[in-house]
Amino acid sequence: MLRAFVLAALVLAVAPSHAAAAARIFPSDRWTVRDPAQVTGKRVHLPTAEACPSRPSDCAELQRLNRLDGFDVEPRVQVSFDRRIDVSTVSARTLSLRAAGGGPAIGLDRLVWDPARRILTGSPVRQLRPATRYRVRVAAALAGTATSDAFTTMSTTVQLRRMAASVRASKPALHVLGTLPAGTPMTRLIDRGGATPDAEPVPDLSATGAAQYVFGTLDVPTWLRPDRTFATVPTKRAPAPLGRTSASFTLIVPAGTPPSGGWPVAIFGHGFLRSHYDVFLAARGNAARGVATIAIDAVGHGGGPRGAIVADGTVIPAPGRGRDTDGDGVISDLENLRTPPQPDPDASFLLRDALRQSALDTVGLVTALRAGVPALPQLSRTAITYYGQSMGGIYGTIAAAIEPRVVRSVLNVPGGPPIDVVRLSPGFRPLFLAELAARRPPVMGPSATLDERLPLRGEPPVTAPSPRVLAAATVIARIAWLGRSGSPEAYAPLLQPARTLVQVAFGDQTVPNPTNDEIVRAGGLAARTWVFRNDRTPTADSNPHGFLLDPASQGDILGQAQALTFLRTGRVGDPDGPAEVFERLRGNLLWSLNY
Predict the structure, then answer these.
(1) Percent of the chain at pLDDT above 90?
(2) Whose CA is closest to 508, among 533, 481, 538?
(3) How many CB atoms lie within 10 A of CB 449?
(4) How far is residue 551's CA from residue 556's CA, in Å, rounded to a whole number?
(5) Distance (Å, rounded) from C-alpha 399 to C-alpha 356?
(6) Are 530 and 503 in contact (CB under 8 A)?
(7) Domain ranges for the chain
(8) What is the pLDDT of residues 525-540, one digit of tens each?
(9) Is residue 253 a contact partner of residue 214, using CB atoms and an 8 Å limit?
(10) Strand order, beta sheet including 529-532
């Protein structure tokens, strides 16, 4: 069985043999074919005969990789040597990438050396440009004979930007279904698939300075198929929408007379397994400062279609975006958010297209607000900003990148790629291990544990990996590559730093700091990033991930105050002055897990 795992780990490292070659390199354009329908003019063409049909999970991944128009922008570079090497001599002088059109040498880090097969793997120290040809050079000092090869990166963002244009042209609309006076106690009915919806009170910290709460739906085009994937088409065009969908919204309207042009509007994006009702926790000072706040349910969230809001005998429909997709009688957010799990052939796409659809929904919300809502004439059509927490920061990064009409954005505890969030987070890690165990054949048994020992940025090389670790590393690399077009770090280079504020939590155990770092580095956002130092507070033993919405956290009021000031004025202030609970990002603080 382990021999099969070793073979699986080798699939992406295979390169054509050359007589007297000192090294073989992957990725390489040798593994592409010409395809004029793609932005790059190429399409990936990896060999599948070894995997199909004996290894169904590997086979499915390779077949889907072969639809892409280039290699990953954060590739797992593999160099196969004909002799042992001294890993300590690996540097940008002995092993590097450089854009074919010129530019600085890009070194590799997060190195893994497999002495048994004499294969070195590593990742570029920075994200590569999409749809660009790069040359990998191996110096004679490392390989014995100098060698090189070239590859072309995929066009990661171009299709979604075209789809965003389609959303803007589709005339998305907000439909008001009911209103309540601000501060009215509310009960939420959640359709979880049972005979009757579950009732939960809605916590509300945002009534101060507010006049009314408005409820309704946003109507937008959808591209999601029942398996939570988009159709695959060549990258010179975009898939056509499959119809329209709706997302429930809540709007908090300030009291008083709106300024000329209407109340500025902040869009709030909620977190994973949460709902748009978190706006009542996230907007505690907004109305009092003259900012209206609106939130919609992300894809898959909010329960089923029988959802509603109840107050003083009034029932306002608030349908959720979930359905019982697996037939077990229960409506869960996760089953409506990710692709079906292994061994489904599309399992490795995970959240890719649900995140892309949620970003497109945000584009639709911006478009509807800019068009004007007849029932809400007091809202500004131009002063529209965005702030999102956790998953709302993840798809919010994508939305802000593809929607330039968002004036400013605050990304709170975002991170990517999702596969790294899942495998590094103590809470999500069981999902990652279950995915490995469910593969066909499995990478590990259902009750086994795995320490893949893959180095983080800045850590020393791993020099004695096990076959199982190598197989897991290959799976991780493939999933990241497949999901890159729906991963926030791929879109971060499109953000304008002056219009962006990032807030992260030191020691975040849900979206770990190294995944925050991916967005910060890719977007050049270090100077725009602030860190909540929960380790310096009385709640230091708790997971600080949800600090923005947690009244028990010192970061709650501070984080919201900083975000609101930036959204309103564009100024970034230190919300706690010399106390150093909030501080600017310094150095390589986010390279480590910090817990």
Answers:
(1) 91
(2) 533
(3) 8
(4) 6
(5) 8
(6) yes
(7) 2-155, 159-329+351-407
(8) 999 999 999 999 999 9
(9) yes
(10) 173-181, 210-222, 243-254, 292-296, 263-269, 379-389, 409-412, 500-505, 529-532, 582-584
Instruction: Name residue, tokens 């120290």.
Output: 125
- Total residue length of the chain: 595
Report DSSP state, residue 382: E
- One DSSP character per residue, 91-153 reads STTTEEEEETT----B-EEEEEEETTTTEEEEEESSPPPTT-EEEEEE-HHHHSS-EEEEEEB
SS3 165: helix
20: Cβ–Cβ under 8 A, 6 or more apart, which residues? 145
CB 190 within 8 A of CB 197: yes
Q: Which of 297, 585, 324, 355 is nearest to 488 (CA)?
A: 355
Structure tokens at 107: 């070194």
Name the pairing type of β-strands 32-34 and 42-44: antiparallel
Which spans in 352-415 are helix H? 352-371, 391-402
The domain defined by 2-155 folds into: Immunoglobulin-like (2.60.40)
What token pair was written down for 503? 């807030």
Half-sphere exposure of 570 (CA within 13 A, CB side): 9
Q: Please give the mean pLDDT across all residues of the chain.
A: 94
Q: Name the one residue in this structure whose structure tokens are 């697996």.
A: 326
Give tens-digit pLDDT for 272-299.
999 999 999 999 999 999 999 999 999 9
HEC string of 272-293 equals CCCCHHHHHHHCCCCHHHCCEE
* Cα distance between residue 564 and residue 547, in whole Å: 15
Q: How would DSSP label each residue in 426-486?
A: TTTHHHHHHHHHHSSS-SS-TT------PPPTTSPPB----HHHHHHHHHHHHHHHHHGGG
Cβ atoms of 386 and 266 closer than 8 Å: yes
DSSP 514-541: HHHHHHHHHHT-GGGEEEE-GGGSTTTT
At 440, list the tokens.
Answer: 């066909």
Peptide bond into 441 cis (omega under 30): yes
Nearest to 424, CA basis, from 590, 311, 569: 590
d(CA 502, CA 489): 13
Q: Is the pLDDT of residue 109 over 50?
A: yes
**Which of 1.10.238, 3.90.220, 3.40.50, 1.20.1070 is the CATH number of 159-329+351-407?**
3.40.50
Mean pLDDT along residues 344-351? 97
Per-residue pLDDT at 448: 65
Q: Give the residues across from 295 on adjacent strands.
A: 250, 268
* Cα–Cα distance measured from residue 283 to residue 301, given in angstroms and rounded to the nearest whole number: 20
Interatomic CA distance for residues 412 and 394, integer angstroms: 9
Distance between CA atoms of residues 292 and 294, nearest Å: 7
The DSSP secondary-structure symbol of 12 reads G
8 Å CB contact between 87 and 463:
yes
